[in-house]
Amino acid sequence: MADPVVFEALVNREYVLSSAENFVLHLLLQATAQSKGNGAGRRLPLNLGVVIDRSGSMYDERRLEFVIEAVKFLVDNLEPDDRVAIVAFADKAQVVASGDQIHDKEAVKRAIDDIDLLEIGGGTQMALGMKAAIEEVKKSLSPDRLNRVLVLTDGQTYEEMACLELARANKDLMSFSAMGVGVEFNEKLLMQIAQDTGGKYHYIGDSAEIPKIFEDELQGLRAVTVRNGRFDVVLSQGVQIREAFRASPEIYSLGEPLLDADRKISYAVGDLEGGVPSAVLISLVLPPRKPGVVRIAQAAFHYEVPGQGESSIKKDVTVTYTLDRAQASKANGRVMNLVDQVAIAKLQAKAEEELKRGNVDRATKLLSNAIASTQRVGNVKATQALSGFMEQIKKTQTLESRAAKTTLLQAQAVVRKTQMLDPEALKELQSSTEK
């Protein structure tokens, strides 16, 4: 039987010039869970809380209509042992269907059809909806279930910090996926909720995409074969950590790196879908050393397989210090591809910050650099998205317009999604780095 997880710890350069001061080395930690039936554990039943924004703006662009269609699809595709609670919120929150009621499918779908008749006001109190869904999920909470809250909203909410605090307080019990529709929602808040809890963030530019996003989320949950993944890294003396990014399946910063007293740092990556790599990219700073093989870190991946308990895989991370400049110039194309994609995401984020400060010229220069990088690595979708964003900014000179915000959200969504290269492209990239 195949192992349930393949764990790799790769560096962008196996050889380091001995005389180099403050040499920056990129360490890729990647875990890929096996698909079901190929060494993976049994299917986990779902335990979901679906939180639906039913504020007044949800009637624009037929948003509520598409949500109703999506939730009906979800109900129709439940297995007998699944539990799903549906909560609607505006100024108040109300449970439309509890986990115990969900399998009376016709009754539940009638209740969903009548969601617009609920007496819950017209504002946006997302924290109330999240709190009600969390309580529903807790009723069927189990390590033998996939426990997740799905939040869909199209607007700015009151008490944003309360939403984030609720997610963080419950992240050890359940994950949170967040879906933003249109351009009026707070994308930073929804991203942070998903990132902090191991869930997913979805930008939905067209309301008609809502059913497909729900379907993708359900398929992703069905594909989970490994739970509670976590990378641990213990750095050798003299090795420093500069920054860390989630590198797959999405790209985002993992915040300020903080080593504990044992020089260890941990990165939780949540549940893993079979066949989808989950990766963290860490930038390390190495001191000069005499020629020879040196262990710079110990890496481990900890995880749970349903029905099999907890396991871990450990690997030593080594490099060879050398005086040979030709050897030191060789790079791992696979790692460098992800380094480039992370660098593009960083440029896009910096450009966004410059725009918020009113520095349009600086922002467009950063975007130009990002576009040149996407062209170099062959990421056509990112090139198109960033080019469209830059052209819109040149026209409007601000992020305040609807058109500018739309192109920003589109660019964010494309740049955040990791582009995995096929084997032939990796071979070409590897050969180009060795020249």
What does this entry look like structurally?
This protein is of the alpha/beta class and 435 residues long. The chain has 3 domains: 5-35 and 225-330, Immunoglobulin-like (Sandwich); 46-222, von Willebrand factor, type A domain (Rossmann fold); 334-416. 37% of the residues lie in helices and 30% in strands. The protein has 12 helices and 16 strands. It has helices spanning 63-76, 105-113, 126-139, 160-169, 187-197, 210-222, 325-328, 333-356, 360-377, 380-396, 402-416, 423-433, and strands at 5-11, 15-17, 23-33, 46-53, 83-89, 93-97, 146-153, 175-181, 201-204, 224-235, 240-248, 252-253, 264-273, 278-286, 292-305, 309-322. Strands 6-5-4-7-8-9 form a 6-stranded mixed beta sheet, with helices on both faces. Strands 1-3-14-11-12 form a 5-stranded antiparallel beta sheet, with helices on one face. Helix 8 runs antiparallel to helix 9 (360-377). The longest helix is centred in the C-terminal third of the chain and has 24 residues, at 333-356. It is globular.
